Amino acid sequence: MVFAKLRRLWSASEGTPARSPRGGGFSLHPTPLDSGLVSGQVHDERGALLPGASVTVVDRLNQVIGESQTDSYGGFALAVSPGTHRLSVASGGYRRYSTRIQVQVNQHTPLGSLGLEPDDSLQLPQPGRYRFDPYHTEIRFVAQHIGMSKIHGEFREFDGVIEVAPRFEDSQIEVVMEAASIDTGVKMRDDHLRSADFLDVESHPKVLFRSERLTHLRADRWNVSGRLTLRGTTSPVDLETSYLGQRRFQGPGFDGDLRVACDAKAVLRREDYSVNWQATLAKGIAVVGPTINIELGVQAVME
Fold this sequence. Notes:
The protein is mostly beta strands. It has helices spanning 2-13, 187-194, and strands at 36-43, 54-58, 64-69, 75-80, 83-90, 97-103, 108-115, 128-132, 138-145, 149-155, 158-164, 172-178, 182-183, 206-218, 221-230, 233-248, 258-269, 288-302. Helix content is 7%, strand content 50%.
């Protein structure tokens, strides 16, 4: 895959415009004839390839002259102007890698295999009971609307507890959301979402998530598997989670609290929770899409 992109980059450097492949993360705009090529492959401390790492090249004036993301094989290729530059690679949960590179006109500079080391500042939380801070936590969702726009909303009222075990994989998480607190900024729409067509808050006032398994993927990435109960129906769900670390804050409103933080996301299918309300436009386009994207930004305080 990397070599195919290298060939496209070289064709661009010879004056042939190249198109950027979907999802490839490479910038393949027509390249000046006096450019050079830089390539490499990124892996973690265990030798596993790292897709989605950010690659940046800056010149002597600290101006960004090239940006990319590694592909599914950890590879990257960048066409940049000749000269002495600095290339850096960053990925969540790892220390930034930085090296000086020398790029020459119409020359390929292969950097080979670049290894990233774990960020020691992201130590796992101390064992104990942590409760969500409602002022610094958000539970958001995004839904497709008539196939051409998105509805953004959130649950305003919730409670969450993380029981951190001595072995972090044995920890447990429970989140309870008040279904009636759903808020998309439009009262008429929110009233409909609270009705029996959707959340049916009168019969099912709570939305509940309980974790069953925490699995470490790499660096700051975890998978939190659990079960979500909505409208009285329970289905499995996986939260793709990025651990942001722990910190003790001093200052107004914090009082030295020990806090942990993470971001998480999941995709829910409406039909899994018996949310089967359907309405279509004249051409058969569904008013509401079949899936909902859930996003959580969590800060929790040790009790």
